[in-house]
Design goal:
CATH architecture of the largest domain: 3-Layer(aba) Sandwich
CATH topology of the largest domain: Rossmann fold
Distance between the termini: 37 Å
Helix content: 25-40%
Largest sheet: 8 strands, mixed
Number of strands: 18
Number of domains: 2
CATH class of the largest domain: Alpha Beta
Shape: elongated
Strand order of the largest sheet: 13-12-11-14-15-16-17-18
Structural class: alpha/beta
């Protein structure tokens, strides 16, 4: 979408051009975020014509059809044009006067949804956003979520403060890259063998904020896979009464939080010992900058995939599989890191969300032990820390180069797969269904719809 917009705004004629974006909204403790869903390019001389007061303007008919569509789909309306320049941009006095003439009426039509304008330069964007009651706000920044993240500002941001603790790694991506990590909020879903590795790696990278969700407590059988786990986390002293021992047994999210804070005492950690599928828990993940799915139930896959597409949040699904036959024969042992971002790598399009398994997971907990690993609920599959580490290291490295913008434009976009028995890496090219209800641009899909579209959650 950004490439199509910049080609339209900057075709090489050094003139002004116009467009409209319709965007979903996400309201959270961090404020308001807009998620671009639809781009409508204004044809020069047809939809974008000489202005009555300023240089150019969008025609009334073009505006009317889009503001009505925004109202009906509960999307924000953003009028767009461009100015000359590269790293700084702002509205002209004529632009601001046109907003003051027209946007109160557009707010009435929008029925509670924000309206506003964006103005782009080559590497900058400014915004004037209007809300019910005629309150206004400038746009702080815009992020383009592709293979790598591109952040645009109205003017170049101030130089980042040097952080001596991260000197060695910031020699790779600079103080500005370290500052990006420091203000990034990541969500980790599942804090078992894979999730605990991710928490450790991201904590040591200097990520500033975490949202963690896992309802399980530690057990002695999974201590070998939980990073920096203590025996007392799963097995408090035996001389204590049973009810006290159970109360003292640590939740996996609290163990991960302890590791993160040990690595980065300044990190803010929201540890939720709850199921990701609970509506109020899922809501905490809708305004993360990046998601890591380390839980392998179909319900978690479905909800993760929905948040990625509905809220414009990139993420990755990690996992490992060790197939063992009834006779004890070990098949191909492999681990995966599947990058998922809006319109790319959809788990539904690629057959990784099984409707039959979704139905199976609705049965009582006592009957579904092991469903996260095998179709047979009576069997728990093998799990080994080294395989979790391979998948998670690849996923965390991909996150690092994505967020700091260091990934090359021609970087591999297929999914990474490592076969441990064959000592061989490979890539699986994800498919896309052009009429997918999750990731496509058809009217019925959830892509970019934000808060005003239901998530596949479980009411509490």
């Amino acid at each position: 979408m950004y490439q199509a917009l910049t080609r339209h705004l900057f075709p090489g004629d050094h003139d002004e051009h116009g467009a409209i974006i319709l965007a979903g909204i996400c309201e959270s403790d961090r404020g308001l975020r807009l998620i671009a869903r639809e781009l409508h390019l204004a044809g020069d001389g047809v939809d974008y014509v000489p202005g009555k007061y300023g240089y150019r303007m969008l025609k009334a008919q073009f505006i009317q059809s889009r503001i009505l569509r925004a109202r009906d789909l509960k999307l924000a309306y953003l009028a767009i044009h461009n100015h000359r320049g590269t790293t700084s941009v702002d509205f002209s006095p004529a632009d601001m006067a046109s907003h003051e003439r027209g946007y109160p009426a557009l707010l009435d039509i929008a029925r509670g949804m924000p309206v506003g304008a964006l103005v782009f330069a080559g590497e900058a964007v400014a915004g004037d956003l209007w809300f019910p009651g005629l309150s206004r706000s400038p746009l702080a920044s815009a992020a383009v979520i592709g293979g790598k993240r591109l952040e645009l500002f109205p003017e170049p941001p101030a130089l980042a403060m040097r952080m001596p603790d991260y000197d060695r790694q910031s020699r790779l991506f600079g103080d500005r890259g370290q500052a990006i990590l420091g203000r990034t909020r990541v969500g980790i879903i599942g804090l078992g063998g894979a999730g605990s590795v991710l928490a450790e790696l991201l904590g040591r990278l200097g990520v500033g904020e975490f949202v963690l969700a896992d309802p399980d407590k530690a057990e002695t059988t999974n201590l070998p896979r939980l990073i920096a786990a203590l025996r007392t986390d799963a097995s408090p002293p035996s001389w204590l009464p049973a009810w006290i021992r159970e109360k003292l047994r640590k939740y996996k999210v609290d163990m991960a939080s302890r590791n993160i804070k040990r690595a980065n005492p300044n990190a803010k950690v929201h540890a939720l010992p709850r199921d990701f599928l609970d509506a109020d828990v899922a809501a905490r993940f809708t305004d993360c900058d990046y998601l890591f799915l380390a839980a392998d139930t179909m319900g978690a896959r479905l909800l993760f995939n929905a948040i990625v597409n509905q809220y414009g949040t990139p993420g990755v699904q990690v996992g490992a599989k060790i197939p063992v036959s009834a006779a004890g024969e070990v098949g191909d042992v492999f681990c995966v890191a599947r990058s998922v971002r809006p319109g790319h790598g959809c788990l539904w399009c690629n057959g990784l969300i099984n409707p039959a398994r979704l139905q199976d997971e609705a049965v009582p907990d006592a009957l579904k032990k092991g469903y996260a690993y095998l179709d047979d609920p009576g069997v728990t599959a093998p799990s080994v820390v080294t395989m979790n580490a391979i998948a998670c290291a690849h996923a965390a490295d991909d996150f690092l180069f994505h967020m700091t913008g260091l990934k090359k434009d021609d970087a591999e976009t297929a999914w990474f797969r490592w076969n441990s028995r064959k000592n061989r890496g490979s890539y699986d090219g994800p498919r896309q269904d052009l009429e997918c209800l999750e990731c496509s641009g058809i009217d019925q899909s959830r892509l970019g719809r934000g808060d005003h579209f239901p998530l596949p959650v479980r009411p509490r």
